[in-house]
Design goal:
199 residues, mainly alpha, 10 helices
């Protein structure tokens, strides 16, 4: 059997990371087997352990990957707006949208993985990766918070994040009922407030 080149090995690993970041968000960490991941990546099951020590190790890497994708998307949206306030409004509208609700595999890992990560043992890599992602997301929201009091900005950022993630989780859990859309709309109205500009 011919040896796989270093470039192909790196490409295969990236494919596994991409696929696992999507599938773990879409179906849950425990809802996807190694065989499922490798099949979705178009690779053989036996090749998995040439890339990762365990599924737990991959879950941590996939979580980091998903938060990185989410951060890059936020930065792209921010670059497309004229002011921090407009950037925040655009982000809130995209986050609390039906489109985002209906795409957990391509959406925010903070919401998609919250329940799964909470059920994982404390010592697995995904717990640390998730925590790092939440800290990064909090810092990004804090940077957009109005005012010049860092403590208040951090509190506002944490409240915003809790509202965003909670609303998205609840709207996904109630999808198919009108309350699902009401939850998104109510959270958006609460976060927008009277002074937020229209995007």
């Amino acid at each position: 059997m011919p040896r796989v080149s270093r470039e192909q090995t790196a490409a295969n690993r990236k494919t596994i990371e991409d696929v696992s970041a999507r599938l773990f968000r879409q179906q849950g960490i425990d809802g996807v087997s190694v065989a499922d991941l490798m099949a979705a990546a178009g690779l053989t099951h036996g090749g998995f352990y040439g890339h990762f020590a365990s599924k737990d190790a991959l879950a941590g890497i996939a979580c980091e990957h998903a938060f990185k994708q989410s951060r890059e998307q936020r930065e792209k949206w921010r670059a497309a707006t004229a002011t921090p306030a407009a950037s925040t409004t655009a982000f809130l509208q995209r986050y609390l949208s039906v489109r985002h609700r209906d795409d957990p595999g391509g959406g925010c890992p903070a919401a998609a993985l919250a329940v799964d990560v909470a059920r994982q043992p404390q010592d697995v890599p995904v717990r640390q990766a998730y925590l790092a992602g939440i800290r990064s997301m909090t810092a990004a929201l804090q940077a957009l918070a109005p005012g010049d009091d860092p403590q208040r900005q951090r509190g506002d950022a944490l409240a915003t994040m809790a509202t965003l993630v909670g609303a998205l989780v609840l709207s996904r859990a109630t999808r198919g009922d009108p309350i699902s859309g009401e939850i998104l709309a109510a959270a958006l109205a609460a976060l927008n407030g009277p002074d937020r500009p229209e995007a």
